[in-house]
Amino acid sequence: PSAVKRAFDFGIFYAEDRNNPTGHPASSFYQACANHDVCYQSCDKEQKYCDYKLEEDAKAACEQIPADHTIKVAGRYPDGTPYVFKVNTRKKCRDIAEYYRMALRAFGEFAFNKRRQQYCQCC
Question: What is the DSSP letter of 104?
């Protein structure tokens, strides 16, 4: 939850929902995340496979967003000047799916190994 809050604060996510970080109703990552949890609990898959599969499943959810849908992003520059710009929601969704995979590759090893210890006889 704290990482999601930081991602939202920095404008990486456009909603504070880790399962739906763009906020668009069609971009839910819930099923991709559920599948990822199951993959981490399987004893015959590598972490890299599970993480790339999450990205693939999340990007499939992104494809449900209309190609021309945009989100208005508002904020302030450090000097206080306001800004507003449009971002393509489908592209942003796909970018976030990649961020998830990169974060898991960088920081997911502990969770992967913990699940292996809990569910497998291998470690």
Answer: H
Residues 6+ apart with CB under 8 A from 28: 19, 20, 61
Nearest to 19 by CA among 11, 10, 28: 28
Closest to 95 in 3D by CA, of 9, 14, 37, 38:
14
Distance, CA of 15 to CA of 23 (rounded, Å): 5
Backbone angles phi, psi at 36, to 5 degrees: -65, -40
Q: What angle do CA 98, 101, 102 make, to 5 degrees?
A: 85
Q: Classify residue 97 as exposed, middle or buried by CB count within 10 Å of its CB (0-12, 13-18, 19+).
A: buried
Per DSSP bridges, beta strands 82-88 and 70-76 are antiparallel
If you average pLDDT over residues 100-122, what whole number do you get? Answer: 90
Condensed to tens digits (0 to 9), the pLDDT of residues 25-43 reads: 888 999 999 999 999 999 9
Rounded CA gap, 27 and 48, in Å?
23
pLDDT in tens, 52-93: 999 999 999 999 999 999 988 877 888 989 888 899 999 999
